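In the design runs reported in the main text, the only information available to the sequence generator was the tokenized backbone. The following block is the verbatim input for one such run; it is reproduced so that readers can re-run the procedure and compare outputs position by position.
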């Protein structure tokens, strides 16, 4: 089977996304508007000589300094049949199209899982001094389809990327997810999800309710006042937790672009206690995949457990929407209790979910001298 890759309109791209059970929000046309500093293009895969579409992608083009050549980046994409035994038939026309657009290299993030660790395994690993990283711990599940993708990409000349900080890290390879369906496909109930949480999480959810924490979702188009309230708390959180916050304008663009694409795409949540904002979050959903995207919490009144309350409300909302999974996004792979990142996985493991390892990001050089110059430039920046 042979395929053609060609540019499509954002509307055609969105129609393909909407026809899928789930797709990354980073592969929606709207995300290209959020990343306005990049050149963007919607593309589709079609069976050769026909209009039968079998894939889609958002491509973000990052220009080299002083040279009109680009790294073509497909974050958490493209949207393809990754179970195929002939990935080359799909990826070769992609490379040809992007090269014609001026790309010196391609970076993709196949949305395929390679390994999973359930909550019990992770807790055991944290307690074991011999286990310092997830890779030291036997996975609960190995995905054969994910292993085939890794094998095929290697054979086709794609290069796996490092997962340290900076642009080269791209999207997180390890995330934490709460499955909202049983293995047989039936939906879990709220009681079943709650029962899967650890005792501390259940106690904190009850404590928040008893303390009178009120959780609400911003209604209708998200206004400036609600967005500023979220951002003010987010900046406070950034100062406390020592990370660089994104500006308010970034979130305004994100809310407007994703909200215009679908009224159910992005939701803003607040937890208040006696009139004080104690936690705020942004949730995103595409099809049956729901994400906790950004969060903020007050240093004051942490004992009322507003963060647990708002997470539980978002989980309930995802269940009501028929989602397959609630995704708490990135974690590092550390299990070392002395590592400052360990607290993140310990917080998320309390939900009773699982750590999920994706295939990671992969590069294909199209112009080797320029690609080498780019990698040297990025390594010096890091």
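Verbatim output:
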């Amino acid at each position: 089977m042979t395929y053609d890759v060609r540019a499509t309109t954002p509307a055609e791209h969105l129609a393909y996304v909407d026809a899928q059970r789930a797709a990354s929000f980073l592969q929606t046309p709207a995300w290209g508007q959020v990343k306005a500093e990049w050149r963007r293009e919607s593309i589709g895969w079609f069976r050769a000589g026909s209009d039968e579409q079998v894939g889609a992608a958002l491509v973000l083009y990052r220009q080299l300094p002083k040279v009109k050549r680009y790294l073509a980046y497909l974050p958490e994409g493209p949207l393809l049949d990754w179970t195929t035994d002939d990935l080359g038939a799909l990826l070769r026309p992609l490379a040809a199209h992007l090269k014609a657009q001026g790309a010196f290299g391609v970076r993709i993030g196949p949305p395929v899982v390679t390994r999973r660790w359930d909550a019990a395994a992770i807790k055991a690993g944290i307690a074991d001094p011999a286990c310092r990283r997830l890779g030291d711990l036997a996975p609960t599940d190995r995905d054969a389809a994910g292993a085939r993708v890794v094998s095929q990409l290697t054979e086709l000349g794609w290069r796996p990327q490092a997962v340290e900080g900076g642009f080269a890290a791209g999207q997180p390879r390890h995330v934490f997810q709460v499955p909202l369906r049983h293995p047989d496909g039936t939906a879990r109930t709220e009681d079943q999800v709650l029962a899967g949480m650890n005792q501390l999480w259940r106690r904190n959810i009850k404590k928040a309710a008893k303390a009178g924490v009120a959780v609400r979702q911003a209604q209708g188009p998200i206004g400036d006042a609600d967005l500023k309230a979220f951002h003010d708390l987010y900046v406070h959180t950034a100062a406390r937790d020592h990370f660089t916050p994104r500006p308010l304008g970034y979130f305004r663009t994100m809310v407007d672009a994703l909200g215009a694409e679908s009224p159910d795409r992005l939701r803003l949540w607040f937890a208040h206690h006696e009139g004080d904002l104690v936690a705020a979050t942004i949730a995103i959903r595409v099809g049956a995949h729901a994400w906790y995207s950004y969060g903020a919490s007050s240093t004051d009144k942490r004992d009322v457990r507003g963060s647990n309350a708002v997470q539980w409300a978002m989980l309930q909302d995802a269940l009501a929407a028929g989602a397959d999974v609630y995704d708490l996004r990135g974690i590092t792979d550390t299990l070392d209790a002395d590592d400052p990142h360990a607290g993140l996985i310990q917080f998320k493991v309390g939900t009773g979910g699982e750590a999920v390892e994706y295939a990671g990001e992969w590069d294909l050089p199209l112009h080797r001298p320029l690609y080498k110059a780019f990698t040297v430039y990025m390594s010096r920046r890091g």
